[in-house]
Amino acid sequence: MGKTIAEKIFDAHEVDRPFPDVRVLRLDRVFCHEITTPTAIDDLIRRGKDRVFDPEKIKAVIDHVSPAKDEKTALQGKILRDWVRRHGIKDFFDIGSNGVCHALFPEKGFIRPGFTVIMGDSHTCTYGAFGAFAAGVGTTDLEVGILKGVCAFRTPQTIRINVHGNLRPGVFAKDIILGIIGKIGVNGATDRVIEFHGPVIRTLSMESRMTLCNMAVEAGATSGICQPDETTVEYLWPFLKGEYFSKQKALEDFSQWKSDPDAEYETVIDFDVSALEPLVTFGYKPDQVKPVREMEGTKVDQVYIGSCTNGRYEDLEVAASVLKGKKIHPHVRGILAPATPEVYRKALETGILKIFLDAGFCVTNPTCGACLGMSNGVLAPGEVCASTTNRNFNGRMGKGGMIHLMSPATAAATAIAGVITNSSLYTR
Amino acid sequence: MKPFGGPVLFLDRSDINTDEIIPAKYLTEISKEALKPHLLEDLKLDGFDPVRDLKGKAAIVTRKNFGCGSSREHAPWALEVNGIFLVVAENFARIFRQNMFNCGMLAIELPAETIDELFKIFSSGETRVEVDFPNDRLTFSNGNTKKTYSYLLSPFDKTLVKAGGWVEYADAKY
C-alpha cells in the first residue's frame, strides 16, 4: 500500500513507538520565539536540565513583541537572548535582523522537504509548503524538543484536497484557504494532516503555498503539506547549491517526499476555484466566511497588512498594485508590517514602500504585534480592522474589537474605500 | 497524580479558542499564577460571568473543538492555577489536548449524544463529577440524580497523567 507524505516522513524519523498509536519522531528543526520559549527555558533550569540537543538544529527569533514594549516583554527577550548565547545557538535573530518567524525561517533556507519541525507556535504548519511535516506544539513539547530533539505524535490521518480550476483576477491563495476553511469548518481537519494537490497548487509560488499551509491549523490540522516540485527547488536553490550538483538532482532527491499514487487518505476533497470570489470573514471564527461582495460597505477603522500569513514580498506587491497613486480613506489607519527585514529591504528598493507611504500607510518594523493584539496596532472596543492575518477570534486584536480576515488585495482596496470593498474596483 | 473531580462548570458552546481561555496580552507573564484572574475573561457566551461562574469549579464540560487556535500552553496553565484539572468535551484541538496531558491534566472525549445528555440532565443546579481513573469512569451527580459514563484514554495519555508529564518521561527514555 502506498504512503502519504506525512507517513513517509514519520517512517523516516521514527525513534520509538511506545504505544501502537504513538510515534516519537527525531526532529530536524526546533524553532523558538520569545513568547513560549522563556517558560520552557525557565523550567529546564528549574529541573537542572539546562541543555540543548543540538545548537545547529535550534533556531531562535524575537518576533512577537519587538522592540520590547515594557519590562515584561524585555525580560522575555533577555531570557531567550541569554539562553542562545549560553548554548552557542548561532542562528538567532534579534533587533535589526528579526522578522515574523514563519516568514523569516523559510527565507533563511532552514526548511527542506522531508524535514520534521516543531515550534511553540500554532502557525508552524506554514513550513508544510516545502513538503515538510511541521507542527505547532505547547511549551512542554517544545521543552522536550529542545532537550532531546524528539516529539511524540499520534499517527496522522491525511485529508487530500485537490484544488483545480482557474483562479479569477483578484482571487489569491488567501481566498482559497478561507474558502476551504469555510467549507470544512474550524474542526474539519482536527488531528489530521492536509495534503494540498492539484493544478492550482502547482502554479502557486512558495509565498502563496505558505499562505495556504499557514492557515491549515485554522481548520484544526496538525500540518498542511504541499508536494515539493520545481518551484520548491527554485526557492531553495541559493541554499542547496553546495549540496546538489544541479536543480534536477535536488528535484529527484525531493521527489521521495511525494505521496504515492495509491496512498490511503481519510477523505479526498475536490475544491474548484473557478467560481471562487474574494472572501472575507464575518464573525469570530475563521470558518465564518462570505464573498466580499456580501460584506461591501462594512466600515473599518484600521487596515493591517502583515503577519506570517500575508506579510511577504508578494503580498506587499499585490497590495501596492491596488494602492498605487491613491490615498487611503481619512478615517482609516493603515498599518503595514513587512514580515522580515529582507521583505522590508526589497520593498524599499523597488519603491513599494513609497507607494504605501504615499497612500497614507504607516510602515512598522517586522513583528507579529497587532495580529494577536500584543503591540503595534491594538484595537479599541467597538473598532473594526480589515486584516491580512489568520485569526478573527473575539478580542484577538484588542478587547471588543472586530477583525475581518481577507487577502492583501482586498485589504488595500478596503483601506482606500474605508469600507470592505472588492479590489477589482481599483484594479480595473 | 493530580486530584481530579469536583464541582462542574458547563460551557454550552463549540470552538472555544485559546484566545478566549487566556488572551494573548497575558502571555508576557512568566509565572503561571499571574494568569489566574484572567481565565476565560474574553469568552463569548451569553450570561457567562467568569468571576461568578468559575468560583470553586474543578472541571469543565463543553461541546466540540475546545482549545482551538493558538498553541499556548498558558491555556491549560490558566485552568490549572484555577484548580480545574479536567475538561470533558466532544473533542479537542490537537495541540490543546496534548498540552493538557503533557501537564498531567485530563482532556476526556465523550460522544456527542453523551455530551447532550450531560447538558440536559446536569447543566442546571450544582453538579459534581468524580473520576475513577483506574477504571476509566466518570460519575456525575446532582441532587439525587447520579450517572456513570465510561471513557477511552490511550495508554500513552494515561502514562503521561501518571508520570506527571512528558518532560521526565522523555528525558529518562530518549
Short characterization:
The complex is a heterodimer of chains A (428) and B (174). Chain A is an alpha/beta fold and 428 residues long. Chain A is built from 17 helices and 19 strands.
CATH superfamily of chain B: Aconitase, domain 4
Structural class of chain A: alpha/beta
Number of strands of chain B: 7
Instruction: State the share of residues found in helices of chain B, binned by percent.
Output: 25-40%
- Rg estimate of chain B, integer Å: 15 Å
Strand content of chain A: 15-25%
Briefly, what CATH class of the largest domain in chain A?
Answer: Alpha Beta
Average pLDDT, all residues of chain A = 97
Q: What count of structural domains of chain A?
A: 2
Question: Termini of chain B, distance in Å?
Answer: 23 Å
Number of strands of chain A: 19
The number of helical segments of chain A is: 17
Structural class of chain B: alpha/beta
What descriptors fit this protein?
heterodimer, A: 428 residues, alpha/beta, Aconitase, domain 3, five-stranded parallel sheet, 19 strands, 35% helix, B: 174 residues, Aconitase, domain 4, seven-stranded mixed sheet, 7 strands, 30% helix, globular
Q: How does this model look, in words?
A:
- The complex is a heterodimer of chains A (428) and B (174).
- The longest helix of chain A is centred in the N-terminal third of the chain and has 17 residues, at 71-87.
- Chain A folds into two domains: 5-270, Aconitase, domain 3 (2-Layer Sandwich), CATH 3.30.499.10; 280-427, Aconitase, domain 3, CATH 3.30.499.
- In chain A, strands 5-4-3-6-7 form a five-stranded parallel sheet. A five-stranded parallel sheet of chain A has the order 17-16-15-18-19. In chain A, strands 11-10-9-12 form a four-stranded parallel sheet.
- The termini of chain A are far apart.
- Chain A is of the alpha/beta class.
- Chain A has helices at residues 5-13, 37-46, 71-87, 101-107, 139-148, 173-184, 199-203, 206-214, 230-240, 247-254, 292-295, 307-310, 313-323, 341-349, 352-359, 408-417, 424-427, and strands spanning 14-19, 22-26, 29-33, 58-61, 92-93, 116-119, 133-136, 150-154, 157-164, 192-197, 223-226, 267-272, 279-281, 289-291, 302-306, 333-337, 361-363, 384-387, 402-405.
- In chain A, helix 2 crosses helix 3 (71-87) and helix 13 (313-323) packs across helix 15 (352-359).
- Chain B has 174 residues and is of the alpha/beta class.
- Chain B has a single domain, classed as Aconitase, domain 4 (Alpha-Beta Barrel).
- Helix content of chain B is 30%, strand content 21%.
- A seven-stranded mixed sheet of chain B has the order 4-3-2-1-5-6-7.
- Chain B is globular and about 50 Å long.
- The mean pLDDT of chain B is 95.
- The chains are: A alpha/beta (428), B alpha/beta (174).
- Chains A and B meet through strand 1, helix 2, helix 3, helix 5 and strand 8 of A and helix 4, helix 6 and helix 7 of B.
